User: Which sequence fits this backbone?
């Protein structure tokens, strides 16, 4: 009977978990940093660089990511077709309008280690532009990864009591 419990314990240790991350109002770099740790399996005590022990990560609301400053217009994504004159450049805004999941996907892909396991890890990344998740994926979710950055409240979300209690710096 002892081997049965050890087998169950080993299965639970090596089983792939499913994590959920909400990307609403989050910078893509911080989303990717939190995601890569789970995809590689670095959060597990059994982690080894040569073993494939990473988990699945589901990222929702990729349409609502946030860049700081003027990065929507200034950040440029480049690619080359391999043919003469095939150098292509698009801004973050153009790429985001074409595919709302592309910026997060590229950021995660570039943060993963550059080895043969990168494609396998990317297969465990599931991106959705809104908060609608297919039912077969939703039933697998075990835990939610906390958002890397606190989302500020909008002005219309404050109650009148909170607004009245807010300190006045200047009175007209």
Assistant:
């Amino acid at each position: 009977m002892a081997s049965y419990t050890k087998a169950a314990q080993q299965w639970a240790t090596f089983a792939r978990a499913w994590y959920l991350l909400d990307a609403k109002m989050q910078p893509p770099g911080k989303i990717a940093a939190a995601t890569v740790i789970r995809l590689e399996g670095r959060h597990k005590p059994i982690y080894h660089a040569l073993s494939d022990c990473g988990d699945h990560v589901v990222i929702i609301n990729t349409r609502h990511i946030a860049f700081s400053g003027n990065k929507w217009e200034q950040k440029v994504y480049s690619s080359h077709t391999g043919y003469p004159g095939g150098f292509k450049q698009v801004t973050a805004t153009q790429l985001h309008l074409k595919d709302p999941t592309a910026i997060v996907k590229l950021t995660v892909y570039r943060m993963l280690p550059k080895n043969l396991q990168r494609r396998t890890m990317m297969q465990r990344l599931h991106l959705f532009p809104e908060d609608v998740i297919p039912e077969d994926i939703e039933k697998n979710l075990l835990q939610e990864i906390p958002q890397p950055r606190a989302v500020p409240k909008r002005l219309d979300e404050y109650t009148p009591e909170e607004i009245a209690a807010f300190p006045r710096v200047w009175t007209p």
Observations:
- The two ends are 79 Å apart (CA to CA).
- The chain has a mean pLDDT of 92.
